[in-house]
Specification:
alpha+beta; 5 strands; 4 helices; about 150 residues
Length: about 150
Amino acid sequence: MPATPTAPTEDQVAESTRSVVRDFLAARMAGDTGRLVEIFADQVDWLLAENPAVPWIRPRATGVEAASQFTELTEYTVPGDARASVDTFLVDGTDAVLMGWLSGTVRATGKSFAGPFALRLTVEGGRITRHHLYENSLSIAEACAPGT
């Protein structure tokens, strides 16, 4: 009699989530957009408060669009000034929450932005299906605004 397949344990699901999120972070750090497309699901529940003053902050729905956010971010900001640190990495089943601090400089204005962030990711079938980012959008908008 063939063995009955067993469902993954909670620990296995959490470890799979942790692994995909680490892969996502490594791809972001390396600027590997091709790998990001592979990591994101075909359809992504994307949430990032729309901000017309910030060209890289816009609605997205597909894995390709989600991965392109990194490329757009590097087009509009000074790469050497971009910083992100993660001080909290929580995993509960298919969900992961990262919290930390990010900063950068907008190329067009030379102005800097900085602030805390929280990123909620959901991993299903080895791919990211949810990407909800909460950040200091006011600081980013102010850095994108021309003038003093």
